[in-house]
Amino acid sequence: MEELKPGQILLWNDFETPDDPNSGIKPFWFLFLGDTGVIQSPLWLFFAKATTQLHYYGFGGSRSTNIVYRFSDYLSYGFTQECLVDFSYPPIEKEVSQYEIKSKVARLS
């Protein structure tokens, strides 16, 4: 099994966003930040969620002063459109028993 590496971009196909339970389960792009490794069982993974809602981050936008990384060359990272990761929000934590990586898609359980 291939391991996730910090900085790897992946698509989580069936992610339920904790900040908006009404949005339903849908695919989201993530930047993998790291995991608890051998120090904890079960394994915890940490992600930063990517967003394509760039208008919030422009001049005068409600998130214009947030700390972000913009993927302007989005195609070279595997994204389908320009996006960014907002580091002003805490990372998403996910407890998993195992995961499987198929190209850029990680299946978590």
Q: Name the helicity range.
A: under 10%
Helix-strand pattern: EEEEHEEEE
Compute the number of helices: 1
User: Which spans of ≥5 residues are poorly predicted at pLDDT below 50?
Assistant: 103-109
Structural class: mainly beta
What is the average of the pLDDT values? 79
Shape: globular
For the report, how would you describe the main beta sheet? 6 strands, antiparallel
Number of domains: 1
Number of β-strand runs: 8
Please report the distance between the alpha carbons of the first and last residues.
Answer: 14 Å
**Radius of gyration (Å):** 14 Å
User: How much strand content do the residues show?
Assistant: 35-45%
Molecular structure report:
- With 109 residues, the protein is mainly beta.
- It has one domain.
- The chain is 4% helix and 45% strand.
- The chain has one helix at 74-77, and strands at 9-16, 25-35, 43-51, 68-71, 83-86, 92-96, 99-102, 105-108.
- The strands form two sheets. Strands 1, 2, 3, 4, 5 and 6 form a six-stranded antiparallel beta sheet that branches. The protein has a two-stranded antiparallel sheet with strand order 7-8.
